Amino acid sequence: MSIEIKGVTKRFGDFVALDDVNVSIPTGQLTALLGPSGGGKSTLLRVIAGLETADTGHIEIEGVDATRLSPQKRNVGFVFQHYAAFKHMTVAKNVAFGLEIRKRPKDEITDRVHELLQLVHLEQFAHRLPAQLSGGQRQRMALARALAVEPSVLLLDEPFGALDAKVRKELRDWLRRLHDEVHVTTVFVTHDQEEALEVSDEIVVINEGRVEQVGTPDQLYDEPANDFVMSFLGEVTALDGVAIRPHDIEVSTAPLQDRALEGTVARVLRIGFEVRLTVLTLDGEEVHVQLTRTYAHSLGVREGSTVWLTAAAGATTRPVPVAVPA
Amino acid sequence: MTSSATLTRTAPRPPAELRTARPASTLTRSSGIGLGIAMTWFSLLVLIPLCAVVITASAGGWTAFWTTVTNEQTAYAIRLTVSQAALVTLVNVFMGTLIAWVLVRDRFWGKAFLEILIDIPFALPTIVAGLVLLSLYGRDNPLGADVANMPSSVFLAFLFVTLPFVVRTVQPVLQELDRDVEEAAASLGASRFTTFRRVVLPSLVPAITAGAALSFARGVSEYGSLVLLSGNLPFSTEVTSVRILGSIENDNVAAAASTATVLLVISLSVIVLLDVLQRKVGRRA
Amino acid sequence: MLKVVRIALVVTYLFLLVAWPVSLVAVNTFDGGPQALLDVLADPDIQAALRLTVVAAVAAVLINTVFGVGMSMLLVRHEFRGKRVLSALIDLPLSVSPIVVGLALVLVYGGRDGWFGPWLESAGFQIIFSTPGIVMATAFVALPLVIREVVPVLDEIGVEQEVAARSLGANGWQTFRRITLPGIKWAIVYGVVLSLARSLGEFGAVKVVSGNVLGETRTATLVVEEKYLNFAQQEAYAVAFLLAMVSVVCIVVVALIRPRHDGSEKKGARA
Asked: Is C146 part of any domain?
C-alpha cells in the first residue's frame, strides 16, 4: 500500500472535517476521493500533502511515517484547482522550480523540463508566462511541475474544477492516458461522480468527514454499501418499496409478469438518445424510468399510455426510504 | 529579445485585461460638459499654477536658473533632502513590507490598534507631527536622545510622515495573494525563506516600488513636520521646502520658483521612473 | 519564534515612531489639568482661527467631493483623448511640496504681480491673503483623496448594473443616483473623511497664501507654530491636541466602517 491513513481526525473550530478516517491507497493506481462539497475530501488530500496537520491519527507514505513531516519533506506532487502558477516565471521555469530547489545539475534540469513539457504537450510554450496560457494549458503545466520532482504520490485537488465542460472532459481522458504511461500513485479529489467513475481505478466515497465506501467504480455502482453511496453515484427512484435506478426498470405495454406494477405515463421527456418517463402507479406513487430512444419508440409510449413496470433482472436495489437527489 | 517581442504581440490577452475591457464609449453631451468644467477647475487650481512656477523659474534664462539652484546653501538643502528621503525610503521598503506582512499574515491581540497607528501620520497635521516628535525626541525628552536641530531630525520627520505609503500599497496585494501558490512551492520542497524570496517577493515588487515612489516623493516635499523639529539651520538641517519659503519671504520669487522647479522635477522623474519600472514588472505578472 | 520576533519588531517600531510621541500631545496638554485646553478655547483669536480652519476645510472638502466623484466617473466610465495623462496628473498634488503649492498659487493669484491676481482684485476678488486662497490651497493638497478611493470601487462594480438600469428605462441621472451612487457610497465616505483630516491639518501651503493675519487669515495649524515659537508651549500643545484628536477620530471612523464593507465579499472566497 502506498498511502496508509489511520484514524485521522481534523477539526476547524467546531466543524469536524475528518472524523476517524481509515483508508489505504494502493500503489500505482489512480484513486478518486469522491463526495459532496464540504464533505472533507479536500481536507484529507491536504492532510496527506502536509498542508494541514491532522489533530489525531497517522499518515504513512511508502512505508514511512509522514505524520510529522513538513510538506517540503514528503516528496508529494500537489496540483491545485486554480493552478497555483508562479505568475512571474515562464512555463519552463515553473516546471524547473522543484528541481532547482533540489539543486540538480543545470543540464539535467533542462533535459527533464523538456521531457515533461513534451509529456504534457506544452513544449512550444516553454518560454511563455502562465498568463498567456489557457486554463487547461495552465493545469497541464501545473501537472508537469508536480511530476518534475518524481514524487512518490501525485495529489490533485479538483484539478478540472475551474475548467469549462469540454476542456474538462478532454483533460480527464488525457489524465487517464497519462497515468497509464507514468504509473505514479495518484489521488484526485472530485465531486463529479461521472469523472470518478470514468477515470479512476478505485474510488473512496467521503461524506461528512467519514468514509462511506471504498471500491472499484463497478463495485460502487453495482453494490452500494448504503443509500448515500447509491444516490450519490447515480439517479435513484422508488418502485414497489425498493430504491432502484431508473434505467433498471423494464416497461411493457401489457401485464406480462405477476409482479408488474400498473401505471399511467404522466410525462415524457426526450433528451438526445434518452427518454425519461414519469409514471403514476395505481397507488399514486411517482416512478421515474429511463429508456433509450429506440426502445421507447418501439413501445409507442406517450403521455396517457398505460404501462406495467418491473425491476430488471440483476438490478441494484435497496429497501426504501431513500434520499432522492434533488 | 526579438522572440519575446513577437511573443507579447501574438500572445492572447490575459484574462485580467479582458475583464476590465470597457466599451470604447465616447463622451455624451452632458459628460462632455462635465469634463469641461472639471478640466477648467483642475487647470485653474493645479495645472496653471504649477506651470507658473516653471515659467517663472525659466524667465531669467538657463544661467540664472543654474546659478540659483547651485547656490551653495540651496544645493546643500537639495542634497540633504534627497539623501534623507532616499535613506528613509530604503528603511520603508524593509519596514513597510515587514509591517504589511505582520498585519496580513499574523494573528495577534491589538492588531486593529496597529492598523490605526499606520494611518495616523497620514492624517495628523504636519505641524502637529513635528510637535509630537519634538516631545519625545527633542530637548529634555524622556529618552535622552535629543535630535532637535540635528540633521538626524530630518530623517526622523521623514520617517514619520512616510510611514503609511509602503505598508498601504503592499497590504492589499499581500491579501489578494493566493496561498496555494506558496503551498505549491512548499510541496515542491522550497523552504519558507526560498518561497518568500522566489515566489512571494516577485509578486510584491510592483507594490513595493509604487509605495517607495510615493514615500520618496512625500519625503522630498516635506515641510510642516520640520518647522519646529529641525530648527531650519542652513548647511545643517535646512531642507529644500524651507529654503524655498525663505526665498519667498525675502521676496525673491524667481529663486523660489527655480528651487521649486528642481523639487517638481525630482518628484516627477521618480514617479515616472518607478511607474515605468512597475509597468515592466506588472506586465509579466 | 520567528513570528514573535517580527511582531515584536513591528510593535516596537510603531510604538517608538507613532504611539508614544502622539500620546505625549495629550500628556503635555493635560500637564496642569484641563485648564490649558479651556483657556485656549476661550481665547477669541484662537476661536477665530478654529472657525476659519473649519470653514476652509469644509469648503475644500465639498469642492473636492463634487469634483472627485465627477472626475472618477469620467475616468472610469468614459473614453477620451488624454485620459491616461489626466489620471496620472490627478495624483500630482500628493507629491508636490505644500510650499510649492503656496508659491504656485501666489504666482497666479497674487494681488500685486500674479498672472490673474491684479485683474481679479480690480474686479473685487481678493484671493491671496484671504479666505479663497486658503480654500484653494487646502483643496489643492487634498484633491486626489476622494478620487483615489472612488476609482477602484467604480472599476470593481463594473457597468453591468448600470446597463441593466438603463435597459429598464432609467435615465443617466437616475442611474447614477439610484444604482452607481449606492455602490460607491462608502468609498465616498472614506474619501471625505480622509480629505477632511488632511484639510483641517494643512499647514505649509496655507502659510504661504494666508499672510497669517491674526484673527483673519490665521488657521489652527498656524496658531500651533506661532504659539510654540513664542514660548506659549502649553497653548501650542492644546491646539495641537484638538487637531490631533480630529485626525485620530477620522482614522478610527474609517477603520471602523472599512472592514465591515470590504470584508463582505472576501468571506466566501475560501469555501
From this structure: yes
Q: Is A254 left (phi over 0), alpha (psi -120 to 50) or beta?
A: beta
| C2 within domain boundaries | no
Asked if A101 and B4 come within 8 Å (Cβ–Cβ), the reply is: no
Task: Let me know if residue C18 belongs to a domain.
Answer: no
Whether residue B1 lies inside any domain: the answer is no
- Residue type at A189 in one-letter notation: V
* Rounded-to-integer distance, Cα B72 and Cα A299, Å: 106
Q: How many domains does chain B have?
A: 1
pLDDT at C213: 66
Domain A238-318, CATH number (from 2.40.50.140, 3.30.70.260, 3.30.70.270, 3.40.50.720): 2.40.50.140
Could you list the residue range(s) of the whole structural domain that residue B252 is in? 44-284
Q: Is the CB of A125 inside 8 Å of chain B's CB atoms?
A: no
Q: Sign of dihedral through CA atoms B8, B14, B16, B19?
A: positive
C55-76: buried (b, 16+ CB within 10 Å) or exposed (e) per residue? ebbebbbebbbebbbbbbbbbb
Check if the beta carbon of residue B99 is closer than 8 Å to that of residue C10.
yes
Identify the CATH number of the domain in which residue C203 sits.
1.10.3720.10
**Quick check: B247 and B255 in contact, CB under 8 A?**
yes
Interface test with A, best of B187, B193, B278 (most A CBs within 10 A): B187
Please indicate if any CB of chain C lies within 8 Å of the CB of B137: yes
Q: Which domain holds residue C87?
A: 26-270
Within a domain: B159: yes
Cell 495623462 belongs to: C85
Contact C88 B275 (CB under 8 A): yes
Separation between Cα atoms, residue A148 and residue A86, nearest integer Å: 15
Q: Is residue C112 part of a domain?
A: yes
Do A84 and A97 contact (CB within 8 A), yes or no? no
Higher-pLDDT residue of C82 and A217 is A217
Of A72, A77, A84, Cβ closest to residue B180: A84
Domain CATH code at residue B275: 1.10.3720.10
Give the 3-state secondary structure percentages of chain A, helix then strand then coil, rounded to 5: 30, 35, 35
Summarised one tens digit per residue, pLDDT across range B89-143 is: 999 999 999 999 999 999 888 888 999 999 999 889 999 999 999 888 887 777 7
* Region at A252 (left for phi over 0; alpha for psi -120 to 50; beta for the rest): beta
In degrees, rounded to 5, the angle at the alpha carbon of residue C260 between the alpha carbons of residues C12 and B206 is 60
Confidence class of residue C259 from pLDDT cuts 50, 70 and 90? low
Residue B252 lies in a domain: yes
Query: Are the C-beta atoms of residues B185 and B198 closer than 8 Å to each other?
Result: yes
CA distances B46 to B200, C21, C90, C138, C147, Å, are 39, 34, 9, 12, 15
Q: Determine the average pLDDT of the residues in B201-226.
A: 90
pTM, entire model: 0.82
Q: What is the pLDDT of residue B255?
A: 92
Helix ranges restricted to H, chain C: 2-14, 20-29, 35-42, 44-77, 83-90, 98-109, 117-122, 131-142, 144-157, 160-167, 172-175, 181-200, 204-210, 220-229, 233-266
Residue A49 pLDDT > 50: yes
Which residues of chain B make contact with A98, given a CB cutoff of 8 A?
A: 188-190
Instruction: Tell me the domain boundaries of chain A.
Output: 3-229, 238-318
pLDDT, residue A212, reads 94
Q: What are chain B's partners, defined as 3 or more CB pairs within 8 angstroms?
A: A, C
Cβ <8 Å between B34 and C70 = yes
- What's phi and psi for A155, nearest 5 deg? -115, 130
Is B22 in Cβ contact with C248 (below 8 Å)?
Answer: no
* CB B220 within 8 Å of CB C98: no
CB B43 within 8 A of CB C136: no
CATH top-level class for A3-229? alpha beta
- β-pairing, A30-34 vs A202-207, is parallel
